[in-house]
Amino acid sequence: MILERVRNQFIRLLCCRMYGVYPFYPLSYPTLFMIGVQIAYFAIIGTQMFMIVLSIFLFYGIYKENVAFLVPWVVGCMTFMALEAMAMVYSNILRDHVNKQFDAMCKAEITFLIPRILLNCLCIWCVLRLYHLLRAGVTWKGAAPIEL
């Protein structure tokens, strides 16, 4: 009896250390996964907020025709697009593991993610073309007035 209790305590401690699962394994199992889903959603929201800031820099760079403001948008867009895709896949896997099936929320998130990724790739291509045109010296500003 005592050996069995010691063995159970050791197994609980080992599971907690190795897998991050607390001793109340059956009760806390879905809760641990849902915390991971919430963290993934916060990561997605954070990437979207930072992309808003980078888009303001992009608009300013286009307005001033300054390539230094275009580069952070391109790098940030590629980085955050990958982070958002990873966070969405991670949250869907965790949520679907708890639910034991792919639910409608998963299908809706993926349905909106794929066109957004394609649209972001198109936007990156357009901004890179603008970047190369500005580096080549093309300008859209009006000619300077000539004084006689």
TrEMBL record:
Write out the entry's keywords from A to Z.
Membrane, Transmembrane, Transmembrane helix
- Pfam families per the record? DUF4728 (PF15860)
Q: Where are the transmembrane segments?
A: 32-60, 67-90, 110-131
Official protein name in the record: Uncharacterized protein
Is Membrane one of the keywords? yes
- Entry superkingdom: Eukaryota
